[in-house]
Amino acid sequence: MSVLKTIAKTVLKAALRRHDVGLDVVELQELLTIAGHVVKADGLFGDATEAAVRAAQARFGLVVDGQAGPKTLAALRAGDADPRHLREADLVAAADKLGVPLATVKAINAVESKGVGFLPGGQPVLLFERPVMYRQLKAAGHDADALAVQFPNLVSRERGGYAGGATEWHRYLSACHIDPACAIEAASWGAWQVMGYHWRELGYTSAAAFLAEMQTSERAQLDAFVRFVLNDETLLKALRARKWAEVARLYNGPAYRDNDYDGKLARAYARFDAATAGNDAQAAAAA
């Protein structure tokens, strides 16, 4: 069984969404109005605000989910989206490759991704796993036990030692002094936290080539996730059948129930599926 991700510290604050209230919502409404999507700045994230957020996201080419996260807010402030950020078209392409409805990919994106694939300093999001470093070093012919004594925060048989955020990048850079390829393989990368040691089976030419892709864009990070799913027939079948408990078990590991991953995926799918149906109905009525 392959576990792709581990719970990490939040990099940026959570998205504003329906029923939220407060000054953050007022700021969002003012930004929307400046951008041409006029809404009343009453501090209540209701239907009109959600519709305006969706319209702004569609205009910028961002993922249309009706929630104002860091990417949407950044685009509103800058007047354009960061080219590294995930686009709606990227999710459409991923759904086509996987042979699933767009709502399925949007549910996976909403629940399983970290929401953003890059740290504030521009490096890809990562989580360094010291037991994986131990295993990869041993496989590469190093004296992993001696290195574990010398660098316990980087090499260990035991899990832990996480620092979160940008500090994980510094842990990775320190591990590169031991063995650069093993360091890449020992971290999970990007918004979907794909482990570096999968690089060969996912079709990358080297660990370094895998990392180079993870540094380019969230589109490339999503592609790594799509490759992983396509390479795992059991996970692909579960995803296509929307067997959320099985998807969560294969993706998150046996403790998935502790965080209600299957329930979150089911609810997210229902929300995005309903939104798609509503959009289709509006288009039909307009025609």
What does this structure look like?
Helices cover 54% and strands 3% of the residues. The protein has a three-stranded antiparallel β-sheet. Helix 4 crosses helix 5 (102-112) and helix 6 runs antiparallel to helix 7 (144-150). It is built from 14 helices and three strands. Strand 2 and strand 3 (194-195) form a beta hairpin. The longest helix has 26 residues, at 261-286.
Tag the structure with descriptive keywords.
mainly alpha, disordered N terminus, disordered C terminus, 3 strands, single chain, three-stranded antiparallel beta sheet, 287 residues
Quick structural summary:
The protein has 287 residues and is mainly alpha-helical. The chain has helices at 23-34, 47-60, 70-78, 88-98, 102-112, 130-139, 144-150, 166-176, 180-185, 207-214, 218-231, 233-240, 244-252, 261-286, and strands spanning 126-128, 187-189, 194-195.
